[in-house]
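Study this one:
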Amino acid sequence: MSRRRLVIALWSAATTVLVAVSPIGAFPVAQADEVRSLEYWLADYGFTDAWKTTRGAGVTVAVIDTGVDGSVPDLAGAVVGGTDLSGLGSADGQTPVGDESWHGTAVAELIAGRGTGGSNGVMGVAPEASILTVSVELGEGAVGSDGQIADAVRWAVDHGADVINLSLTRNSLDWPQSWDDAFSYAFDHDVVIVAAAGNRGTGTEEVGAPATIPGVVAVAGVDRDGTASQDASSQGTTIAVSAPSERLIAVDPDGSPRVWSGTSGAAPIVSGLAALVRSAHPELDADDVVNRLIATADPKGDPVPGPIYGYGLIDAAAAVTAAVPHVEANPLGSLSDWIATYRPASGASTLFDIVIPAPESTAEAAPRRPATAGSFDVYSFSLWAGPVALLIGLAASLVVLVVGLRARLRVLQRKE
């Protein structure tokens, strides 16, 4: 079993090794009635306009994380099911576990927070979507995290998830083979998977799995001005889109509001947007949903797509309402194709185990007549007859030369 740990996609003041992308600078903030005014991304990124079309009703988002506390007033009625795979929480997945136990609840609030009435409380980007919670053990000392994630993905699919949010990273490009099967299972069942890119502030300089898996929507983070976050983001060629990752707001299970940063928060904003798209366009499959996310993004950086912003900054209103052509495949790649190419029959479990065979010649071979029993294969003969004849000729020449030299030596001896 792999002992590689996952890390929370957050930015924490203390450098910790966690199994989710660890939050950066999470700390208590203002009074609860000020929370809504701090959610700048709702207006700045088009969510309030998108709500004129849909608020996410009928779509279920699975949060695979530290557990979601459904008793938080801001999530009243949002959590419709759950389980615990850590062995530490409650059977329904609603008892937060681990060092960053508030993390899963904060992620769920960004997706489907209902607020607490009027303009109070946390309002998620898809406030009528439903949440499934799967609590897993993430962080220092966690054992079997890779297996928990694989099982969690399958459980989420089997229990009706339309979108899966993974605010975690392995801090490595590769992933265990068990994830091949689990993520393929999700893709085969028409599920959109969104993952955090990770944070430089907690040591993730380059995007790690699951954000490196083909077909997964990898989310980078930007600051309030839409510029790539120095600490609350990462970079890599698999980045799909960017979303706010700084000065995010949450309400802890104990009711205390806090501000936090990290791609752990950017990812659920995109997961919520995927929920809005699925609600507004139930006829679309997961590939078309993913395509809408990237096709309607506001281009940012050079090139586009690029390793810092991907296709650009998300635009919720455009993703929900724009005319976007149908696609035949996930524009972010095919995991099944990747497996067929890079997972050899020898059973390599990581990228570093893979041995890529030498390329075969592309020259077209001459047709060969199949030999029959007892027959002489002329084609085979033509391959070795020339070299053999040359060797025979050289040998004969050598014999003649030796004989000649011996005769010359006899003549010289008689003269003496």
The chain is about 30% helix and 15% strand.
